[in-house]
Amino acid sequence: MNSTVLRPGDELVARVTSHTPFGVLVESESGIPGLVLASSAQAGDDLTVRVESFDAEKVRFSAVEV
To answer: What predicted TM-score, i.e. pTM, was given to this entire model?
Structure first.
């Protein structure tokens, strides 16, 4: 399990892994999966995002593109 903790307001680079109807799924450089709402990025793109929430139990985050 990844020991990295993300906090709301943190900015990081994440790579788009796939699309959903409401945004894109990404993976941070440290391997944590996340959801970026309403992005038009394509799979493989790197995005700079701002963390909105982090679920430490499920080890995933939600973010917005900056």
So the answer is: 0.88
